[in-house]
């Protein structure tokens, strides 16, 4: 494949990342408008976000193994079609239930795009130097989508209406389908992993019941929450027991014997829970209680996106020169500080001061994100690095879902003057996420942690050799 065509394949894959990532941020700024139009309560707004992120989290690893088996281009194209159809249905939604169901369909398509696109890039760029540059471009698109999402969402919501934020996905998705058919070669894994339907169902039950209990608990009562949490615990116990016995599990539980891997997964959950809570609470605060338009609220989040884009590469360089501990510690400190500062915000806080706090949050998030994957794959055998990275990606989506669910549950019963005190509690929870990241960064990046990673890698390699000999 010529260099020109390889670059074209990269750009096609980046188109998919752009529209999937945009939907993580573009919808937040439109929440007040669609809430008014569809008469949605706070819990309805939470489901609008979480239906998307939860479905992504539950299906990412299944989509990767399916693509390895039936073909990456075929799976990628199917995902683009489903995502585009889901976006169109979202734009036509006459009710909240229709919108949430369409968001689930969107996410089903999205789960077949991003992990598969990364596999396509890995197989297209075989030279290590070119591959690193391609992955760098791929990562930069995340920052672009984070910056563009709130601004584009605000502009479209104010000028056309909230439905327009879903229209833009349709032509981009259909163009990507054609370009994929024309330029992306088909590829499959030499030995694809078996699909694990039982493990997949248990993951969906675990995430679904846990989130449902958090979101609906304030209105439905403690009894429903208790039942949901009990089912979630049972699903988790069943998942661990089943996956430990399965030869080719959906999630290899032996990974969690590595302290860096376990720490990275928990830090991904905590860091992205802070992001989900931040976006959700500040959208309601800026538009519902400070009276800003959707566009102005989107522009207010630019300091977060710009800080993340600037600090992200610096964090990656720190990881390469000094290891992951320094950026992870800095990220935890900044997230904790931002949460504590946001807890002091009132309805009369000067806007420049508020934007300064947003910069602190952006620096913390920018420092945190790059070393998560590096820490997850630290010491893992090369053939297991992709699976470890997929678990880290799933943890990010789980974290964002839980962040929105918990923050929304805190402010669900608050309105008017009661919103700020309730939001203050939500921001203190964000500060707690940052402190958890800080503690995990110190605990899981030292000598003891590296030794656990080495022992885990040795066990994984031995198990793989035994499986090959048995086969």
List keywords for this structure.
single chain
Write up this protein.
It is built from 19 helices and no strands. The protein is globular. The mean pLDDT is 84. The chain is 82% helix and 0% strand. It starts with a helix and ends with a helix. With 471 residues, it is mainly alpha-helical.
Topology:
Elements: H1 3-25, H2 31-38, H3 42-70, H4 72-91, H5 96-111, H6 114-124, H7 128-159, H8 164-167, H9 169-183, H10 197-220, H11 222-245, H12 259-289, H13 294-300, H14 302-322, H15 325-342, H16 351-377, H17 385-411, H18 419-443, H19 447-470
Helix pairs in contact: 1-6, 1-7, 1-9, 2-3, 3-4, 3-5, 3-6, 3-10, 3-17, 4-5, 4-6, 4-9, 7-13, 7-14, 10-11, 10-17, 12-16, 12-17, 12-18, 14-16, 15-16, 15-18, 16-17, 17-18
Distance N to C terminus: 34 Å
Instruction: Outline the biggest β-sheet.
Output: none
Report the C-alpha radius of gyration, rounded. 21 Å
What is the ordering of alpha helices and beta strands?
A: HHHHHHHHHHHHHHHHHHH
By DSSP (H or I, 4+ residues per run), the number of helices equals 19
Shape: globular
Helical content class = over 70%
Structural class: mainly alpha
Mean pLDDT: 84
DSSP strand content:
under 5%
Low-confidence region ranges: none
| Quantity of strands, as a count | 0
Assembly form of the protein? single chain
